[in-house]
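Subject: for your reference before the review

Hello V.,

The reviewers asked for a structural picture of the protein, and I figured it would be easier to keep everything in one thread rather than splitting it across files. Below is the amino acid sequence we used in the manuscript, unchanged from the supplementary table.
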Amino acid sequence: MTGHAPSVGDVLGTAEQLVTIVAVLLGALTSHATSYVMERQRNRHELLTRWDTAKLDAYGNYVDQVRTCVFVAVQMYEHRTGLRASDKPMREMSAEMLDAGRERGRAFERVLLLGGDDVVEAAHELNAVALRVDWQGADKLDGSLEDWRERNRAVFRAINEFHESARIDLGVQGSVTGERHPERDLLLPPRQRTEGEASSDS
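And here is what came back from the structure prediction:
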């Protein structure tokens, strides 16, 4: 019994089937690869977004806690030096300063965990100058009224530097320092005249 040689039509049909199968396989592989890449990109974007959100919360909270400590220190300093009396006793203000300092320390630790190198260094510098305000406010560091004001200025300069580093780390456009943002001094109430100065005007 002799076999039949495949006809040209049979060969072409088989070839077409193979081409179709290969095309289907390639399409499936391409679709799978595209889906895999897109899924990885989506997961990576979601992860980066979560980290940026965590960083933003940490950076903002740290500055809030620094400002809270400064506010309490100002109350203590003004009450202690007679610039502005407070209804709170010093013991209560000291307890508030202790609590505020503890919260600032926790916020600082979060910055160390999440922040980039420049942000961490800016936080260290801010922490150092903020402590000097705490100490003079609580009478643990000597200094004149001008020393006090300069230490407060140093804190707000350091806050600006921290903001600058944080914005770069988060990819925020613009700047909070530089030629378009001149340094602003402390906002102080107008100096009250003494009785002697008032008498000389009359």
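For the response letter, the relevant points are probably these. The mean pLDDT is 82. The two ends are 140 Å apart (CA to CA).

Happy to draft the paragraph if you're swamped.

O.
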